[in-house]
UniProtKB/TrEMBL annotation, chain A:
Keywords: Germination, Lipoprotein, Membrane, Palmitate, Signal. Residues 223-389 form the Spore germination GerAC-like C-terminal domain. It is found in: Membrane. It comes from Paenibacillus glycinis. This is Ger(X)C family spore germination protein. The keyword Methyltransferase does not apply. Residues 27-204 form the Spore germination protein N-terminal domain. The keyword Signal applies. InterPro entries: GerAC_N, Spore_GerAC-like, Spore_GerAC-like_C, Spore_GerAC_C_sf. Belongs to the GerABKC lipoprotein family. It is a lipid-anchor. Pfam families: Spore_GerAC, Spore_GerAC_N.
UniProtKB/TrEMBL annotation, chain B:
This is Spore germination protein. It comes from the Bacteria. Residues 477-505 are annotated as: Disordered. Keywords: Membrane, Transmembrane, Transmembrane helix. The chain crosses the membrane at residues 251-272, 293-312, 362-382, 388-410, 417-440. Pfam families: GerA. It comes from Paenibacillus glycinis.
Amino acid sequence: MRGRRTARIVLLMMVLLGALPLAGCWDRTEVNDLGLITGAAIDKYNDNLISLSVQIFIPRAAAGGGGTGGMEMSGKGGGAGSTFVHSATGENIADALSHLQEKMPRKLFWGHAEVIIFGEEQARSGIGDDVDYLMRAPQPRERAYIYVCSGKARKSLEMQAVLERDSSEALREIAKSKASMSVTMTELAQMLTDQSGGAALPWLRQNPARSKHNPDSTSNYTNGTAIFKGDRMIGVVDEGVTRGILWLRNEISNAVITVTPKGSRGTVSAKLLRSKTRLIPHIKDGNWSMTVRIHVETAALQNASSANLLSSPVDVKNVEAAMNAEISDRVKQSLKKVQKDMKSDVFDFAGEFHRAYPKEWHRNKARWDDIFPRIEIKVEPDARLLRPGLTNVQSTTKAGEEQ
Amino acid sequence: MKATADSQPISSAMEDNYKTLCDIYSKCNDIIFRELKIGGKTESFLVFIDGMVNVEVLDLHIVRCLQHLTEPLTNENCMEVLGGELSISNLLSVESIEDAVSHIGMGCITLFVNGITLCFSMGLAKWEKRGIEEPAAESVVRGPREGFTETMSVNRAMLRRKIKTPALKMVPYRLGRQTHTEVNLTYIEGIASEALVNEADDRISGIDIDGILESGYVEGLIEDSPFSPFPQMQVTERPDVVSAALLEGRVAILVDGTPFVLIAPATLFTMMQSPEDYYQRFYIGTLIRWLRYLFFITTLILPSLYVAILTFHQEMVPTSLLLSIAKSREDIPFPALVEALLMEVSFEALREAGVRLPKQVGAAVSIVGALVIGQAATSAGLVSAPMVMVVAITGIASFMMPQYSAGIAIRMLRFPIMFLSGVLGLLGLMLGIIFIVVHLCSLRSFGVPYLQPIAPMKGNEMKDVLARSPIWMQRRRPKLTGRPNNVNRQAPGMKPEPPKGNESS
């Protein structure tokens, strides 16, 4: 009796186990069968077609040691030649991708695409459709960094990286350092769908070639910001304005502020410790205004001035005042450019007003494009020099002159 | 001619007894019959097994004494006379042939005297035995270095030397129709719950089998879930481990002829505790315990995780790591699953070969094996370097389990999980883990849930599982099955501290 039960259980197990291979299919995908996309570039081809370029990792080229592979995974092989760029044209990304796949022996895999670069022309004619694919398709990462690049985006992808593995890895590292604007795909999608109707993406420019023999040996250089209205790029702003945008968007995390304090010669540089920007909207008698409070804490990095930060609270106050003026300047400069000239709400003022005055917002949201450029903005920076340092090694001439 | 003895009384005629025993022990070359005349006139003979008795004492003190015995022996006075004359502490009278045979089997010398319906068994058993050595599989840095031996009396003495209270009980059983192996159920009365002792007694008494050659036989016959891959009894060679278990209220089963003692009940967590945890400072004990838990999981799932992620979820690996794996996998002709199986199976083969081979050859095999697995396989392009890493880590991790049998269980279980994850990806991996966890939840060892104190949750006992709390904090014994008696094992306030007060006074 007992033996029969055991036999039955064993039989059942065997049948169940047998069912697994019976289907005859195994939907595995080995790494060897994947073409790993490390970066993608989207350019306008002509009025109807786009051109999709992908940077694909070449594992064989990177495996050092002449084909033996295996244990000796030497450091060589990296850098030059470990990736190649391939393009295809199509109606949209999905179409272009299918054309690209036709030419590839391996299955294209988006899971590790670290950066996606839009060409300038494509950006000017609208990136909404492309973002739709990138958000909708399961493989591309929502955390990929997005760039807009001057000229053809494919060129940026083809560039050789000196320090990093390839150009897209270099771009990703730059974005991660948060020194300038950095926008991930999720953030871009949020900017495109929220009520402000504006978006900002980091702007990529190519450095001039280092030598004539090797025109590819150059690097990308990001400093500006591409300003979008809706999903179309309307202009580019330079480095200084970008800084101001970062202050306003509360995204600044890495900065050195250099000022000349009042009543002393030379400059003082302070490193940003932390900063917090608050946007406080007001609507009074139909007047829309916004107070921008920027609270900044800094540590003195270099004192090349005659100010004595250690013992003179007055000097510290002067430095703080100078920093306030500097920040205020930056912010006003970028407001003038972005708010007044380009009329694009990349700071998400719309969201602030919506949250603070939901009723007024609903009444006026259709007119937001008219209202936005006319909003009065008051900047209230509050910079503090928290750590003046422990010693004061000053240039004697400057100190002497002061007396 | 019969091989076994009936319950036949001892005849008063010596010839009859002699003939009966000769029949029983026909074709037994190792049985020695020695005829002698007591006091020069009474016919008698000694029976014993060659090599199992102390021949020196026999020659010097028994044969000579008997030859010079003057007082005549009768049925009534024989015990007093022999007891007075023979300088032997362990002297018994036996009434039937069957008992006599069983005594002979235990290494006693039996004396049959003409005209007396009793025979005398003299406990002079002595045979060549191994000395007490350090248990090789359970060595510690700090702690006693003695291990059990194959001899029951030595093992019992080792336990008694550690726990001197008369409450330490050792209940004897004779198991095995042919082997008559001595098995002792050991517990501390007043600490082990009666229900547990009764249950153990029931299970051991129920055993009816030809032979018990090792405690594994007993384990296989009394465990709760015989089909489970997990051991439900702790096995140890160390007297200190057994003593600790006894003091916690567990029972131990000693089997003659093997140094391995069974401890019941056992939980998964007792399998992952080493005696050294308690001998070292508690911080390191706790950390090492967590290291073991970590590597327990590692052994179970690391190769499967690698296979699953590499064949189904490439997006889950950090980019740089995936690229370097892609580099090293580029020339590998096999799917990751086949690669993993290849490596894991050859690792198991090497391990098994290393255990079986003589020591001198073992070193050579492990060196060649390491080369084959590590270097040659990768440069031949059969296996990728990351896979070698994974297999090596898994292999090391599986040996971190202090209980060899528990280590075997998880080493075995990782193969089905590997298949599942190779076919179904992470889904299969989770399926396998769920299956194992459900199975563990349903296991019991002598009535104690296998995952106690995690499931069912016993907050008070967590301190010996999630951490190894200091000795003075472990006031209460863990609660096992049945009604606990005598739960406190130390006086309150055992935390040591310097005396309070003024330093000068």
